[in-house]
């Protein structure tokens, strides 16, 4: 079958000529008709299968509660009871599981590679995104990786999970099993560009943003963004996971660009095709799922700093929605080009951190250390926006003792003048 959009020859996703894997069996080794596995994939697959043996599972369970996985004494003791290769593999996997606890509630039951864990979405982000596919029972998860998004997508749905890496695909199925959602998963080992998407209701694609040795430049991916966006020609309902630093203009008109933060940490972005879009830009803050979208309102006033400073969530600034936040909170800007807002009363919003301003004055670095000591400030978190300067060097020159209160020192501009604000949490 020829896909008219790319000119690629597609084999039907219902056929068995793309190494379709049973949900509870490991991927077959390459045959003449299957994509050839890299030598390191063969090694990784062998290591994974060893971990799935009873001795491997027993060792992983034993390591789950060990405090110091890098202890030489620990490794030596384990080698008296387990094969050295198994010990080395299990210790690496245990370290990855420990690192994954910040992303997955069941990390200790899952399997990872270092690159796969790095690119995988956090569980909270994946669940938020999966809710946008409500009413679409059959989804293609393209570039599925270790299955971070697959887990959320497969809850109550049938998912075709496609990845060229046999190790990641095997891990994706195992990780879906850890969450009890593997029954609806149909793994397919293939290049996503050679898969026919006929019969699916929606597609999600998380293109690789790094090779086996390096991270790609922001905006670069494999498959390229242009190919991912063109998926909407074949399946109208498409979501593309993006790096949060992507230029907003890279997403075409008619699509929705969403930036997602978990509390104050910007996690990722996603582009939603016109069939799923409900706005042009969106800032979402988890775990509450609060969202901010363009409101078409008028200009925001620019006035002198007030008694309280609002530091917008990075999802808001990346989405270009600072003025929407100002109108929603009744606050104002202190400079037309700077993403800080001010108020004279405390403001409670999930879209910004509110700070109480202790001092507001023109930037005079020579006087800062004395002013901080006078205010009993022993340590500062420096926020720089709109004003050049080396934050680490400034920290060193302030020579703070660490004793006393902690404050936020804001380096910014007011009416295009260098300005400083000394603030504490409100």
Task: Considering the chains and any ligands shown, give keywords for the structure.
13 helices, 7-stranded mixed beta sheet, 426 residues, disordered N terminus, alpha/beta, 9-stranded mixed beta sheet
Series of H and E elements: HHHHHHEHEHEEHEEEEEEHHEEEHEHEE
Largest sheet: 9 strands, mixed
Q: Pairing-aware structural class of the strands and helices?
A: alpha/beta
Task: Give the strand tally.
Answer: 16
Shape: globular
> What's the N-to-C terminus distance?
62 Å
Determine Rg (CA atoms, Å): 25 Å
Strand content: 15-25%
Mean pLDDT equals 89
Order of the strands making up the biggest sheet: 3-2-1-4-5-7-6-8-9
Uncertain spans, ≥5 residues at pLDDT below 50?
Answer: 1-34
Helix content: 25-40%
Count of DSSP helices? 13
Break the fold down into its secondary structure elements and pairings:
Layout: H1 39-52, H2 54-63, H3 72-79, H4 84-100, H5 114-119, H6 123-130, E1 138-142, H7 148-153, E2 158-163, H8 166-178, E3 185-189, E4 202-205, H9 225-230, E5 238-242, E6 256-262, E7 265-272, E8 281-286, E9 290-292, E10 308-312, H10 314-318, H11 322-329, E11 332-333, E12 341-343, E13 352-362, H12 365-374, E14 377-384, H13 391-398, E15 405-414, E16 417-425
Parallel strand pairs: 1-2, 1-4, 2-3, 4-5, 6-8, 14-15
Antiparallel strand pairs: 5-7, 6-7, 8-9, 10-12, 10-13, 11-12, 13-16, 15-16
